Amino acid sequence: MPPLTRWFIRAALVYLVLALCAGVFLALPTGNPISGLFPVYFHLLTFGWLTQLIFGVALWMFPKYSSTKPRGHEWLGWLTFILLNTGLPLRAIFEPLNSNNTLSPYSGWMLVVAALLQWLAGLAFVANTWERVKEK
Amino acid sequence: MPRLSVYFVRASLIYLAVGFTFGGLLLANKSVLISPLIWMLLPIHIEFLFVGWLIQLAIGIAFWILPRFSQGASRGDERWSWAAFALINIGILIVVLQSLFGVQWLIFFGRSLEIFGLIAFVIGNWKRVKPIGM
């Protein structure tokens, strides 16, 4: 298993634990104390866990790009990992703050930055994977 | 990777890219209001990423890696899986039309096509869930 895949899978496992913790918070009998937590919980699970796990395994198992570059452009893979794992935590922090109206206008832009980073992570993955999806 | 898996996986990558684009717009719109109309993208974002990306990717990979038959067509009657590809993708597009134009029966029609597509895939690949070598 290549190093980048290990990073993806370990990060995915961390998000799984975080998502389940958020799920416990959402299920508190006293009511959820943090508004805006539900979309964070949902995206930790679907993006941080499921999609990140897929990214890591695809990088490892998909047909080779070429004999010299079996996993395509390695830097694009690392870029995907960095963008995903900065964008999603930013979202997890600032989305609840935003829904509680505790943000200054300046820090509201952090949510825009989070959106941009996550979007770019997706595009980087697609760009690096597209050519590896080919007939044998 | 067989040709049909290439189609499934590449289609799923397209849905991932478009779904993420809509998701980025929705998230940015929460803090910096771009337009209230962007909220109309929410059901499309969900449809593209759940059915278009996750489910379609899983089906495409399953068609590739499930055990093959040692006699006859190695992946069985592939027409069922080709039908699944067509039905799922037409279904997704019809569900999206419902989200844009609000014609309620379209969602019933689109979801039905998606389900028929999944059933077609199950029928076509049921016997491939077996020990290797049989």
Our count of helices of chain B gives 4
Largest sheet of chain A: none
Q: Determine the mean pLDDT of chain A.
A: 92
**How many strands of chain A?**
0
Order of helices and strands of chain A: HHHH
Structural class by SSE content of chain B: mainly alpha
Q: β content of chain B, as a range?
A: under 5%
Percent in helix of chain B: over 70%
Rg of chain A computed from alpha carbons, rounded to a whole number of angstroms: 17 Å
Uncertain runs of chain A with pLDDT below 50, 5 residues or more? none
End-to-end gap of chain A: 22 Å
Helix content of chain A: over 70%
Strand residue percentage of chain A: under 5%
Determine the mean pLDDT of chain B. 94
Shape of chain B: elongated
Oligomeric description of these chains: heterodimer
Radius of gyration of chain B: 17 Å
Helix/strand order of chain B: HHHH
Shape of chain A: elongated
Low-confidence stretches of chain B: none
Secondary structure: number of strands of chain B: 0
What does this structure look like?
Helix content of chain A is 74%, strand content 0%. Chain A is mostly helical. Chain A has one domain. In chain A, α2 (37-61) runs antiparallel to α3. The longest helix of chain A is centred in the middle third of the chain and has 26 residues, at 74-99. Chain A is elongated and about 55 Å long. The two termini of chain A are 22 Å apart. Chain B has 134 residues and is an all-alpha fold. Chain B has one domain (3-128). Chain B is 73% helix and 0% strand. Chain B contains 4 helices and no strands. Chain B has helices spanning 3-31, 42-65, 79-101, 104-125. In chain B, α1 runs antiparallel to α2. Chain B is elongated, with a radius of gyration of 17 Å. Chain B starts with a helix and ends in a 9-residue tail after the last helix.
